[in-house]
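Marked as duplicate of an earlier ticket. Keeping the data here for the record.
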Amino acid sequence: MDLIGYREGDHVFIMSCGVLFYFQREDVKRLIDAIGHHFPGAHMCFDYENAKILARSNKAVRKTGNKGAYMPFSMEDGEKEIKVWLSPSRYYMVVGKYDNHRYGLHGYRNIP
């Protein structure tokens, strides 16, 4: 993150589509926190699946013969879970819900 040319006041939008599925939950928490500290005021958007849908996704991947693409990260209700992860005094949520929490895009922004 230090290699990105960033100046205080720059507008930053980070999109992570189809990536966080492959991270462990604690790694996702640390990444989101690090982004918030390195890029104050940044907006972040990412997708997720709940545990039931993710299990189906992992099963579909295994059927292709790919044994190295296990996806451990899921959330049941991203809005509630992320609020627990992040300090409420520093962050607020912008949330879009799709198909009854089965798939969603979430974002956050630091409050100056």
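See parent ticket for discussion. The chain is about 30% helix and 25% strand.
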